[in-house]
Specification:
Porin; 260 residues; mainly beta; eight-stranded antiparallel β-barrel; 1 helix; 10% helix
Length: 260
């Protein structure tokens, strides 16, 4: 009887010890840290950039005679022409961007060459080849501000500011009426420009994009001298220039910006 009670007591003691050891093992398990919070990377548009652009341009040129005091002029005051020309448009740009969250603000300057030009033969007096007018707009410059909104590697923006263009107008009279002559003048026209575009960051420093711009310019008086005394005077201007280009930029800046 005594042995049975002893065996029972030893069994209970053993079971309690095993339970305590199991509880101790559970308490000693190592602590596991929670997984880190998700980190989203956004493209960094801030910094200086430099690049080039190439595409096409369309120019509306107009000129109206305001004073004809030479022997070879065959247009009366108030008469004139308008012509549209198209050509290649390309050049370079430099600028700087500031980024605040998804908003991007910037300043940019561009210099572009273009070959929009045209020729009009004046048949007002019925001759087959009378006054031949020629014009060309060969280069322009802009200084603009930009405002854009960034979505991942994409930047959608609008721009606006100053534009200027170099323009030339010339006339050659080939039929004596009563005499022949020629004259030309080149002038710089100030104006304004607005545009919109899209850029995509292909690497942390290289971006590619598309842009459309519309520019309009002031009138200026052109004095076209001839063989005789006096001048052939026109109010002339590139009424507007439209351009569409592909752009490639290299940005001097740091890596992607982390956002938690």
């Amino acid at each position: 009887m005594f042995n049975a009670k002893l065996i029972a007591a030893l069994t209970v003691t053993t079971a309690l010890g095993a339970g305590a050891a199991s509880a101790a093992d559970l308490a000693a398990r190592p602590y596991t840290k929670a997984p880190p919070a998700y980190v989203a990377s956004i493209y960094n548009w801030s910094g200086f950039y430099i690049g080039g652009h190439v595409g096409g341009a369309w120019t509306n040129e107009e000129w109206v005679n305001t004073a004809n005091t030479t022997a070879f002029g065959d247009l009366a005051p108030g008469e004139g022409f308008r012509q549209r020309g198209s050509g290649v448009f390309g050049g370079g740009q430099v600028g700087y961007n500031w980024q605040a969250s998804n908003w991007v603000f910037g300043l940019e300057g561009t210099v572009s060459g273009l070959n929009t030009r045209g020729t009009v033969v004046n048949n007002v007096f019925g001759f087959g080849f009378d006054d031949q007018f020629s014009w060309r707009a060969d280069w322009m410059a802009t200084v603009t501000g930009r405002v854009g909104y960034a979505v991942a590697n994409n930047l959608f923006y609008v721009k606006g500011g100053y534009a200027g263009v170099n323009n030339r107008l010339s006339v050659v009279d080939t039929v004596p009426n009563p005499s022949t002559g020629s004259g030309s003048q080149t002038q710089w026209h100030n104006g304004w420009t607005v545009g919109a575009g899209w850029e995509y960051g292909i690497t942390p420093n290289w971006t590619v994009g598309l842009e459309y711009d519309y520019s309009a310019f002031e009138k200026k008086s052109y004095q076209l001298g001839g063989a005789g005394p006096g001048t052939y005077t026109f109010d002339a201007r590139p009424k507007d220039i439209q351009s569409a280009v592909v752009r490639l930029n290299y940005r001097f800046g740091g890596p992607l910006v982390a956002r938690y």
